[in-house]
Amino acid sequence: MYEKTYPSKRFNITLQFLKKHISTSETILDLGVPNPFSKIMEDNGYTVINTKGEDVDKDQIALQTDNYQVFTAFEIFEHLLNPYTVLENVKADKVLISIPLRLWFSPAYRSKTDMWDRHYHEFEDWQLDWLLEKTGWKIVDRVKFTHPVKKLGFRPLLRYFTPRYYMVYAVRK
Asked: Which InterPro entries match (predicted)?
């Protein structure tokens, strides 16, 4: 599939999950600016519209367009203060969302150099499930997967066995 670089495992699993549930005839609104995975989706025949980096915690106008059938948010919700309002304002009837899971052996991620690159939410799987349920979505499929790293140590060893990512496909109830 894709090069054996840092996110290749995550990208391959995400692409397989996307292909399993979403037709290339459906337009995708991908939350976030154009990124390596939105390019992968386009390379695989999907029509992708990205948001432009607006603060969707405060302003959901970018979600109000009717030009998309699927909403995706890949590793974005953990950065938002208010994912509830985002999910309430999605106009599509299908969503694919992935999040990094909260790890008991690691503190919440917080960049020391980038004010926006930090995790406000460190979800457990049940928390994302509940968020989707409360905002009117029914989960159809889900997958968890690990994220091994090529380092030595206790935490890298735990990453071989502890699921790091959680991805869901849900439809509007």
From this structure: SAM-dependent_MTases_sf
Q: Are 167 and 17 in contact (CB under 8 A)?
A: yes
Residue 28 above 90 pLDDT? Answer: yes
Point out the least confidently predicted range of 30-34, 43-47, 154-158: 154-158
Task: Using CA atoms of 11, 123, 131, 51 in order, give the dihedral in degrees to the nearest 10.
Answer: -50
**According to the model, what pLDDT value does residue 116 have?**
58
How remote is the C-alpha of 91 from its chain's centroid? Answer: 17
Which tokens in the block code for residue 90? 């999605």
DSSP secondary structure of 137-158: EEEEEEEEE----S--SHHHHH
**DSSP-assigned letter for residue 55:** -
Does residue 59 register a pLDDT over 70? yes
Architecture of 8-172 per CATH?
Answer: 3-Layer(aba) Sandwich (3.40)
Which amino acid is present at 87?
L
Q: Smallest Cα–Cα separation from 50: which of 59, 63, 91, 58?
A: 63
- How many whole angstroms separate alpha carbon 89 and alpha carbon 62? 9
Neighbours of 141 (CB within 10 A): 12
> pTM score, two decimals?
0.85
